[in-house]
Design a protein that fits this description.
This protein has 154 residues and is α+β, with helices and mostly antiparallel strands. It has 2 domains: 22-111, SHC Adaptor Protein; 114-143. It is built from 3 helices and 5 strands, in the order βαββββαα. It has a 5-stranded mixed sheet with strand order 1-2-3-4-5. The longest helix is centred in the last third of the chain and has 30 residues, at 119-148. It is elongated.
Amino acid sequence: MPPCTQPAEQVENRPKYYGREFHGIISREQADEILAGVEGAYILRESQRQPGCYTLALRFGNQTLNYRLFYDGKHFVGEKRFESIHDLVTDGLITLYIETKASEYISKMTTNPIYEHIGYATLLREKVSRRLSRTKNESRKASVTSEENTPVEK
């Protein structure tokens, strides 16, 4: 996941907390052209529509995704904060990958467990069933005993 470092060396007004990945004020379309279909590549740009606001342009899934970027001593696009842009992008790529590749599998695991009939799940189910039946029997015995000890009026 390399930052795209096409000639952005002479960018004016580069924030001190951004490095060579910062490309100045460019459009979404220009960012898409710079990233040129390289999965995992990213650049930082200043928004044309909102000067003073910064955007992370990230190539993932054959498209360029744009996220508003913030800095308060650490870099962030959501709740999680990172020491470096590289760490933020790494975490973002992992999250995107999991959401797109594993979400269907995780959903299947939670709705249709494939290991339900073997091993630990079976033993656990049997143990719970025995415990429930024992509890029912004990409560029946207790009610019969209490009925036997109840004095009957004549």
